[in-house]
Amino acid sequence: MTSQEKGWKEISIAAVCWKPSTEFLTGDWKTYKPVRDLEKCTRCLLCVIFCPDGAIHWKSDKGDIEFDYSFCKGCGICANECPVKAIEMKLE
Amino acid sequence: MKSLVEQKVLALNGDEAVAYAAKQADVDVVAAYPITPQTIIVERFSEYVANGEVETAFICTESEHSALTACLAASLTGARTFTASASAGLALMHEMLFVTSGCRAPVVMAIANRALSAPINIHGDQSDTMAQRDSGWIQIYAENAQEVYDSVIQAFRIAEHPDVLLPVMVCLDGFQLSHSVENVNVFPDEIVKKFVEVRRFPKVLTHEGKLALLKLDPENPMTMGPLAFPNYYFEFKRQQEEAMKNALEVIRQVHDEYARISGRNYGDGLLDYYYLEDAEIAAVCLGSTAGTVKTVVDELRAEGVKAGLLRIRTLRPLPFEGIQKALENVKAIAVMDRSMSFGGYGGAVFHEVRHALYDYDKHPFTVNYIYGLGGRDTSPMQIREIYRDLQEILEKNRVETPIRYVGLRE
User: Fold this and answer.
1) Which in A49, A58, B241, B310 has the greatest CB count within 10 A?
2) Structural domain containing residue A84
3) Is residue A3 very low, low, confident or very high in pLDDT (cuts 50, 70, 90)?
4) Which of residues 51-110 of B touch A (CB under 8 A)?
5) Around Cβ A66, how many Cβ atoms within 10 Å?
6) In this predicted complex, what is the ipTM?
7) Chain CA centroid to CA B134, Å
């Protein structure tokens, strides 16, 4: 707990969120991190669809995907679903 | 006290009085599941819906857990919401009771108090609501059908008050109140509608950085019932405790305002005092039993015995200081519990009252009487014996048996 955290008189009642969920980084939950083999990856985007946290983004300017490690919880669904086994879960 | 408005007298049992009050309180949503001895509440209300007497959305659910869940969700959208239950039904709601109070949803629920299984028993005692006293709900215990009607109307104002925003249980003893017909004075519809007002909402800071009214609204999206980690959960619980403290004053204010219109008052709304000013011996109880105890106090007073009664109307929030003050000069006190706290050294009400008296220098003799479990009758003779016991304690200047059972066969 840090001194930035507010006291009970300052926060919204009923636990209504005063910050969007994008400000609560959950990336530090993970033990294993997805690492992609750029040679094998066909950019089929199945991983983007399957990621339960929306932590894999399609970057149209780059024509490629990008993992957002500040939200990736390391569940490994992307690695499991990848049809060409281009994603490996590596210990952080 | 004189009433400010013309009231008509209806012959209603306690359950019907609840349904009538809920109808007049302009409830938007009722989600309920019938259970004895609460059934008549749901039956009557569904008749009002079928006859077009109310515009309420009535949801028949598959269980009490679902009934309260539906009420919670409706309440979060800003709807005035009501339900009713008892015994096993209330027990099944257990999880959602805490979610409702934690989400600060001002749901009003009537409970026709009934014993818990096993062995199965449909009759009255207060085991069901006592088991939920730490669920964050305000608990009002009524003495008669008139108070049931008055309390349900008051409950909406209390629950929805922006300084409170807590759900309220109005408790009526199963069968003694739920099924006994009494003369009940009722207001014209428009008086109740005016009294309960339109629901008000406090403003909260949302994730968009806006101050918005606390209700689910597509124009002002907000997240309710989220996850709170160890760094914030505790703070939200402290807020609920503050709301309970605020409720003490709000219950009193709402009660007084109602009393001015109706001409009826129940002590100060928190505690009902009966001949306590000069009482040497007194009983403390909740609910319909107070009616019998008052009759006995009248008899004892006529005989010159300085007997009194303190009826606790709101167990949550507990009027802690009021209890101390009310029992200030009493020398021996009998606390009556219509439920058991197995292995807990006396019943729940005993714990609360004795606890309040501990900080108090005089430490009067305080004994516990467990009574009326599973609908067992408690007679005026038995109440007289309790007062006789208190006199004996004063004569001997000691307590031999601190926890006693009324009318139990050895």
Assistant:
1) B310
2) 25-91
3) low
4) 102-104
5) 13
6) 0.89
7) 13
